[in-house]
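Input record (Table S2, row 482):
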Amino acid sequence: MKNILFVASEATPFAKTGGLADVAGSLPKAIDKEYFDVRVIMPKYGCLKQSEKLEYIGNFQMSFDWREMYVGLFRAVYDGVTYYFIDDEELFNTQFLYSDDTRFEIRRFAFFSKAALSALETLQFRPDVIHCHDWQSGLVPVYLNEMFQDNPFYQGIKTVMTIHNLKFQGRWNLDETKSITGLPKRCFYSGALEYYNDANLLKGGLVYSDAITTVSPSYAEEIQNPFYGEGLDGLLRLRRNDLRGILNGIDTDVFDPANDPYIPFAFDVKNFRKEKILNKTALQEELGLPVDKKAMMIGIVSRLTDQKGFDLIARVMEEILATDNVQFVILGTGESRYEDMFRYFDYQYHDKCSAHITYSEELSHKIYAASDAFLMPSLFEPCGLSQMMSLRYGTLPIVRETGGLRDSVQPYNEYTKEGTGFSFANYNAHEMMNTIRYAEQIYYDHKRDWNKIVEQAMKVDFSWKTSALKYQEMYDWLTSGQ
Ligand code: ADP
Ligand code: GLC
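Output record (adenosine-5'-diphosphate complex):
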């Protein structure tokens, strides 16, 4: 039996802002329990969901930022997976997962990384592999190699760094980071944490880890180029032999149109022609849109950031709303410029656009189930899970061909009738609009073809089955001493 520890800043069902939580909450379940014992460690936020499931298991003191600090430990078992939680009132008892105060974020996640390692002896859980996710756990491989090697318990532990989003790197002033983390001076040169005169926590993880993965094969290629590389493409090219792109899966138990407590009408690949549409009319009624089962509904569920292509939408949405026979349903929170944009469209085109500037799991499932198409024109997309969720609910994605969108949506070919969605190549608003209009044309004028695509989309297997095997293979390779 090999022990694997996931270190992540969010994981479903306890805390979620985006896809990282879905992955950290569903991949451990999918790894073969006969050979691997996968556990997850994350912060105990004040806003944790299902907190009644947590039991207190102990505490210890840890030197950090020139002080001895309290580290509390909690545990919960969910869906057969053990989760550990790091507690510290000052750092984690927050109402939101993250803040805009970069210094605070650096401090709390440096603390989290060191505490996650320090806790292992107390927990008597010695991982063979520590699997780190995004910059928040980037210091784990650094601390492990620089400050824990005197203790035989930690010797020989391997590390993996998974990039879910290269844009977020955890950058802060070099001297302050040195002082906060207590890491030796030798870590702060350009071959390690130093990055354009700052400290960069993700870079630390990428330099010190034994293997690197990212969440789709296309993104693994893209990030080796300057356009997608966010300044780290050189390092990623250097480590390309240790870099793998493994496509994410989704939790097919939670996202299952045949068995989803959030949606009013269950459906599957056999009866979607009659049943899926009932979800559309129910949602139209609930949201106050004109109830019209024929009108094409386009859904958006997203963090509202520039990554997701909202600048393209800003450019042509008004034209589409003014002339096309479509209804948009939008769910998201994020940058105020995009929140306000959708509020404006909702106000101005109330019969065609229903925008919900909030976070709601229930509404997200209803949108995946009710919509005909799902718009995701991302500027970059490491993997993207929303388009997979849409596909599973027979909602055809309209995406830009980048990263995981390219790897998971097969563009419709009207000659062979193959495909599961619609896509365009360039980051260009009119290219996106033409693709939306092409989809409208298939939807309205070639309904049989549309339904055939829906059938093809619903049949694709987006479970973790294949990808979990790839992670297992990597854990085996890392621990085989080769
Ligand atoms: P990212 O991780 O970049 O945000 P993904 O597509 O990988 O993008 O994952 C997004 C996840 O977050 C999906 O599970 C999606 O349903 C969910 N999500 C995003 N915004 C909201 C929201 N406002 N309400 C509910 N769920 C949301
Ligand atoms: C990130 C990416 C998204 C990916 C998710 C889970 O948030 O933006 O594309 O699906 O992580 O890996």
